[in-house]
Design brief:
Elements lengths: L5 H11 L14 H15 L2 E2 L2 E2 L8 E3 L5 E2 L6 E3 L4 E9 L4 E2 L1 E2 L2 H6 L14 E5 L2 E5 L7 E8 L17 H15 L3 H33 L12
Parallel strand pairs: 8-9
Antiparallel strand pairs: 1-2, 3-11, 4-11, 5-10, 6-7, 6-11, 9-10
Helix pairs in contact: 1-2, 1-4, 2-4, 4-5
């Protein structure tokens, strides 16, 4: 969990913008708040910011709808994607205690029996398109399906901090600063802030990569124990 709440982000962001008060109410919208949440969402939901590929898991954002699940309907091939999901990781059939296999959408579309009521059965494959998960075979009864997914984080309010690590607080602030400058058409200033954002993100990613490398080195077998044919 982060250290700064939205109130702190807004305070620092206002300072970064020469304590401008006009940005606190633009048509009833606080742009300091809007920019902070826009930066937070971009960092946690995008695969790339500027030219930096993130490829971050953020396990804090992985969850399941196991408390409710979704019941399939006999003869209906789809279930709705969980409301806050941005990436489906797994679909689990709780009725039959089995995880379904993911399939490419093209394979699902190639199935000629997906509308054949005589070919219904227990689903064993899934794919996603838009707001729906498509099951195959089409369910022949009611099955309880659980989704394991990466969710969109809740917008920050009040003193609420981010759900990701505190190492990202400054990056979010800097990225929010960049967004405000762009919204105000201050492009030259935005260029310099953009470079700072990139440097901060790359620095954190480098720390993560070093940790992963260190872990691999730690568990690597001693030289005398390695297969001489594999180095």
């Amino acid at each position: 969990m982060g250290t700064w709440g939205l109130d702190t982000f807004k305070l620092y962001l206002k300072f970064r913008n020469a304590n401008r008060t006009d940005l606190e109410n633009v048509g009833g919208v606080n742009l300091y708040e809007t920019a902070t949440n826009a930066a937070y969402l971009a960092l946690t939901t995008k695969k790339q910011i500027f030219q930096v590929r993130l490829n971050l898991r953020f396990p804090e954002l992985e969850t399941t709808d196991a408390t409710t699940g979704t019941n399939t309907v006999d003869g209906t091939s789809t279930i709705a994607v969980a409301p806050t999901a941005i990436q489906i990781i797994d679909v689990y059939d709780a009725t039959n205690n089995v995880s379904l296999d993911w399939m490419p959408l093209k394979r699902y579309l190639d199935y000629t029996d997906r509308y054949d009521t005589g070919a219904e059965g227990k689903p064993n494959e899934w794919t996603r398109s838009g707001g729906y998960i498509y099951l195959h075979p089409t369910p022949d009864a009611t099955y309880k399906m659980y989704q394991y997914f990466r969710k969109r984080p809740t917008l920050l309010t009040g003193t609420t901090a981010t759900v990701i690590g505190p190492e990202w607080d400054e990056s979010i602030l800097e990225y929010a600063t960049y967004k405000l400058l762009m919204w105000n058409h201050e492009y030259e200033k935005a260029k310099f802030v953009k470079e700072e954002v990139i440097d901060m993100i790359v620095g954190i990613l480098g720390m993560y990569e070093a940790e992963e490398t260190s872990r691999k080195e730690h568990i690597r077998p001693a030289a005398g124990l390695r297969d001489p044919g594999r180095r």
